[in-house]
Design goal:
Layout (H helix, E strand, L loop, with lengths): L2 E3 L2 E3 L4 H15 L13 H17 L3 E7 L9 E6 L3 H19 L4 E3 L6 E5 L3 E6 L1 H7 L1 H5 L8
Parallel strand pairs: 4-7
Antiparallel strand pairs: 1-2, 3-4, 5-6, 6-7
Amino acid sequence: MLFLRGAGLVGAPDEEDFVLTYSAHVVSTGAAPVAPVAGADTSAESDSTLARILTSLSDDKAEDVVSIDLRGRSEIADYMVIASGRSSRQVSAIAEKLTERLKQEAGIFCKVEGKDQGDWVLIDAGDVIVHIFRPEVRDFYQLEKMWLMPGKKAG
């Protein structure tokens, strides 16, 4: 693919080309971005999204909420949040309220998996990945152990 820069064509895009091309696509199609643009400086956005998520989880009485900083360790997201609900119904309700709040307050359209079953709901909010479990399922998979650095406590 060739990208136009100034008056000449350039063969390989850089981050600025990608951001501008993606932004132009969003504006021209009226589509809302689902995830942030790769390579863009999104630390303030991800911190804001994390704060909204933690507030929503607290408001909905999620239990054992853990946030894990993934910056510099993974390209999938800046943060991972893991929380529990007491039942399948509460897990699904927490996920529903969280995605609705992010959509209404920040314009973030999340991708959601597992909400109908309510055992483990995965929410992709772009910069922040959220896992909401029933306690038994969370104990079985132990995601915290996989992602936390040895000797570090979760935030």
